[in-house]
Amino acid sequence: xxxxxxxxxxxxxxxxxxxxxxxxxxxxxxxxxxxxxxxxxxxxxxxxxxxxxxxxxxxxxxxxxxxxxxxxxxxxxxxxxxxxxxxxxxxxxxxxxxxxxxxxxxxxxxxxxxxxxxxxxxxxxxxxxxxxxxxxxxxxxxxxxxxxxxxxxxxxxxxxxxxxxxxxxxxxxxxxxxxxxxxxxxxxxxxxxxxxxxxxxxxxxxxxxxxxxxxxxxxxxxxxxxxxxxxxxxxxxxxxxxxxxxxxxxxxxxxxxxxxxxxxxxxxxxxxxxxxxxxxxxxxxxxxxxxxxxxxxxxxxxxxxxxxxxxxxxxxxxxxxxxxxxxxxxxxxxxxxx
Length: 338
Description:
Layout: H1 14-23, H2 35-46, E1 53-57, H3 60-71, E2 76-81, H4 85-88, H5 93-98, E3 101-105, H6 114-117, E4 131-138, H7 149-161, E5 165-170, H8 173-180, E6 195-199, E7 209-213, H9 216-228, H10 237-246, H11 251-270, E8 277-278, E9 286-290, H12 293-302, E10 306-309, E11 314-318, H13 325-337
Parallel strand pairs: 2-3, 2-4, 4-5, 5-6
Antiparallel strand pairs: 1-7, 6-7, 8-9, 9-11, 10-11
């Protein structure tokens, strides 16, 4: 089966699989006291211009919960876009894990701005009200759009001026960096964020993420937060080995660049079809569009994808590091038969 539902559905990159095989030899100390974790940690640090503490974890929901728990108290508010992953797709885990109120904000493109946040910067110091505490953003956003560096700097400066901290969910950060022709650092850490989920699972890894802590005030408690969030791996080498491969020979960039190129090709072919309308600009490896609902239902019989807003007929297609031109030709050919 070839799927355009999610980059989670793609296979593991051969270089990552080989790294796992290579790590699967003999005994190694657990919980990160191994050579793979040491080397992968240094590779992560080299990606960023600011000092940071990388902590490898299992998955995205756990990484977001851990990072947000680290920077908040239960009386805080966490702000995110209405389409934010923590509000839509994580079964309330960040809210349960932090005890915080998740305040969603409507956005046209999935991106938060100081202007959108301004109405909520109220009730500071009033004990009857939950206190503004943190901002959650994702790069790329859940609508496939990308924060430009100047937008991130403006947002982080605004947050810090009001005493808030910023967590970036970088599940698809490699796609953002590849699309802008910038480094991972230039679309995240260098812009002033406090914590980052450096995503790998959606970009060729078997299953590993990394919480990168930039705010030096949070570093001391990072490992405790990871343990409490149930994200400390006993056989850590199998997570670290994946990141070692990911950050060697620009594998992260090769995978993300290919996924973006396939998305651009798919978008170009879909734009030739009269009854297809895009609802968001195609900036990364996610496409949001509509077509007649009976047509999309028939397409769904052959190619699995998610409806983003089914009453409106809005669907999401996602390309991956292993999407091929043949996959796209076959999908477009089938659409022409409908």
